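Anyone up for a design puzzle?
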């Protein structure tokens, strides 16, 4: 029997030069992904927990 890994997407703020960008990463392996995807493309974890937004607006 294969063990199912459960995880969630984390939205983080990144910097691309002078521009603030946002990236979505897997909470299990930190690979980039798309928030709507049901599984992580890298570690195959099932995304069945709520997305966590780690971004804040800084002025």
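Challenge accepted. My sequence:
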């Amino acid at each position: 029997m294969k063990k199912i890994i459960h995880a969630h997407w984390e939205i983080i703020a990144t910097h691309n030069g002078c521009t603030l960008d946002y990236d979505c990463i897997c909470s299990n392996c930190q690979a980039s992904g798309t928030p709507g995807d049901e599984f992580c493309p890298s570690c195959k974890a099932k995304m069945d927990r709520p997305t966590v937004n780690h971004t804040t607006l800084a002025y």
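A detail worth pointing out: The mean pLDDT is 82.
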